[in-house]
Design goal:
This protein is mainly α. Helix content is 69%, strand content 0%.
């Protein structure tokens, strides 16, 4: 940890000519994330004085950009980014026509598999409905008990709570019959 904090105070660039693109892209991504966070922070501080509203996010942005700059130059991180860039240079990128063909194969495969899964779903749901394991929604709704009618004195009295817990037994009983699924007694 002390070595990392000491590294944050350095100003030099580790292996300056190697892995430049990977380090620059990594730094730009970190700086962009921090900038968006600081912008959102300034919007959150809209009730504060303008000096604090813009000063705090600006100070955090400056500090975070410096930390991001130093992180991409820490030897361990920089060596990793150098290795990433070296591996990316070895990649053989497809041509435009190869990319289009491969993308079409992937999309067609996805749609065919989705159709197969939909057919299996329809088949098995039909089998389970035929066996009576799954019921139609209308059948399920018919089996559920309907809500009992709440007596009018409950609805129009401002001195009564919405969910009467301490009222007379008949009011509590009427309420518990009205909403049995909630378990309110």
């Amino acid at each position: 940890m002390i070595a990392f904090l000491r590294e944050l105070g350095q100003t030099g660039i580790y292996k300056r000519s190697q892995g430049r693109i990977a380090r620059q892209v990594t730094f730009a991504a970190m700086a962009l994330v921090v900038a968006i966070g600081c912008w959102r922070l300034s919007e959150t501080l809209d009730q504060v004085q303008p000096a604090l509203r813009y000063g705090i996010p600006a100070a955090l942005l400056a500090l975070s950009v410096w930390i991001a700059y130093r992180i991409v130059n820490v030897p361990g991180v920089a060596d990793f980014l150098i290795a990433v860039e070296a591996e990316m240079n070895k990649v053989s990128w497809p041509t435009r026509s190869e990319l289009i063909r491969a993308s079409m194969v992937v999309l067609i495969t996805i749609f065919v598999l989705a159709a197969i899964l939909a057919a299996f779903d329809l088949f098995w749901s039909g089998v389970f409905r035929g066996l009576g394991i799954i019921r139609e929604r209308a059948e399920e709704q018919a089996l559920l008990p309907g809500p009992a009618r709440v007596d009018p004195p409950l609805a129009g009295r401002p001195d009564r709570d919405v969910c009467p817990r301490d009222g007379p037994d008949d009011v509590r009983r009427a309420w518990s019959n009205a909403v049995p699924a909630w378990g309110i007694t």
